[in-house]
């Protein structure tokens, strides 16, 4: 990118002309459609397992400049579109919001205390799973105009990728879904893709959430890391899972139930009731890098 900065006066007119042509329907040049995927090892994971690596797309610089311009424009309105429950990659929002909300819900006695739980949900290959048709429909429902969405759609029209492993580079292959990790626009598009699910949970009259002093909390998100706060898990958990499964059919976003769990805030009857969807009870879980237990003093200093 240093080369672009050095010669921006000479390059800007050509890039502006190209980007405007793309908005009017011209296809992206082949070089802008193609990315090289490298894989980075996840800390503490078995290097022999494919799932232990995170794919990062190294995009063409012209495409990345366009994506960065669109991301800056989107950042100007994203806080008006995405509720405060979602703090991942949203300007002025940080993990502090999620951690403080979790700490509060563990430390206070809610108006509907007695059987409270937290469902911690793991999304399966989240960024790679988003269906584009669903994403375009979501952008339209949020009020984005055609001129803006045409640019975004152009970046996802007939994209290709190669994979570099060590010194070997694969043949190019077509991409059919997902938002690219490594694209400046990708985190914001993913937050937009998650918002309809969060809205369905918030607005469901059959999910009561946790209530305290007129405030109700049902869901907390950091990108795809999702917590559900439920006061009556015997009923509300089944309703939430039904909403999530229906959302999966449209969005492509899928919960990995084997890595999801239910954490009791209040003591549960013995033996604890069987959970739906293959979910298991847990006495601790890791959230945004912090090991969470019922004894809050084990992870928060008084």
Q: Round the Cα radius of gyration to an integer and report it.
A: 22 Å
Class from secondary-structure proportions: alpha+beta
Number of strands: 16
Number of domains: 1
Which of globular, elongated, flat, extended, rod-shaped describes the shape? Answer: elongated
Mean pLDDT: 92
In DSSP terms, counting alpha (H) and pi (I) runs of 4 or more, how many helices? Answer: 11
Q: CA-to-CA gap between the ends?
A: 47 Å
H-E order: HHHEEHHHEEHHHEEEHEEEEHEEEEE
Strand content: 15-25%
Unreliable sequence segments: none
Description:
The chain has 302 residues and is an alpha+beta fold. It has one domain. The chain is 39% helix and 21% strand. Strands 1, 2, 5, 6 and 7 form a five-stranded mixed β-sheet that branches. Strands 10-11-3-13-14 form a five-stranded mixed β-sheet, sandwiched between helices. The relative contact order is 0.16.
Short summary:
By secondary structure, the protein is of the alpha+beta class. The protein contains 11 helices and 16 strands. Helix content is 39%, strand content 21%.
Features:
11 helices; five-stranded mixed β-sheet; 16 strands; single chain; alpha+beta; 302 residues
List the helices and strands and how they pair.
Blueprint (H helix, E strand, L loop, with lengths): L1 H5 L1 H16 L6 H4 E8 L11 E7 L1 H15 L2 H4 L13 H13 L9 E5 L1 E2 L1 H4 L2 H10 L4 H10 L4 E6 L2 E2 L3 E2 L11 H18 L6 E3 L2 E3 L1 E4 L2 E6 L2 H19 L2 E2 L5 E4 L15 E2 L2 E4 L2 E4 L9
Parallel strand pairs: 1-5, 13-14
Antiparallel strand pairs: 1-2, 3-11, 3-13, 4-12, 5-6, 5-7, 8-9, 10-11, 15-16
Helix pairs in contact: 4-9, 8-10, 10-11
